[in-house]
Amino acid sequence: MSDEQVIEHFKQGKEWGLLVSVDCHDCDPAKIRSKEVISQFVIDLCVYIDMKRFGDPIVVRFGADPRVQGYSLVQLIETSCISGHFAEDTDRAFIDIFSCKDFPPKKVAEFAAKYFGSDKFEYSISFRT
């Protein structure tokens, strides 16, 4: 579905929320290892998709197992939340945007990929009823 079709379906349907999951491969290692870049990303994303942030981003680095070590992100928004995990071992970013307000999934995925220097990404869409 195109962004326009997703938004139209969301507005006409009985869905309560829209979830978009974005997986970015081969990210710029410096960017996904930077608390400041990750924090600024979610601030910029909220501006880009016109979501009202509720408080500051929570960005914490943890993981005893190198396979999962990296920063995790949570940003509450007025209409739900944005979360993410940045896997340092594979230079990947996994970002979820869930909202009861519509937003353009493909543009969000492209925004995230560009922000983290990824040339390869995929995204999935789920309507929550």
Average of pLDDT = 96
CATH class: Alpha Beta
**Helix count?**
4
Find the structural class using helix and strand composition: alpha+beta
**Largest sheet geometry:** 6 strands, antiparallel
First-residue to last-residue Cα separation: 18 Å
Describe the structure.
With 129 residues, the protein is of the alpha+beta class. It has a single domain (17-128), classed as S-adenosylmethionine decarboxylase (4-Layer Sandwich), CATH 3.60.90.10. The protein is built from four helices and six strands. The chain has a six-stranded antiparallel beta sheet with strand order 2-3-4-5-1-6, with helices on one face.
Layout of SSEs?
Elements: H1 3-12, E1 17-25, H2 29-32, H3 35-48, E2 58-62, E3 70-77, E4 80-87, E5 92-99, H4 105-115, E6 120-128
Antiparallel strand pairs: 1-5, 1-6, 2-3, 3-4, 4-5
Sum this structure up briefly.
This protein has 129 residues and is α+β, with helices and mostly antiparallel strands. The protein is built from four helices and six strands; from the N terminus they run H-E-H-H-E-E-E-E-H-E.
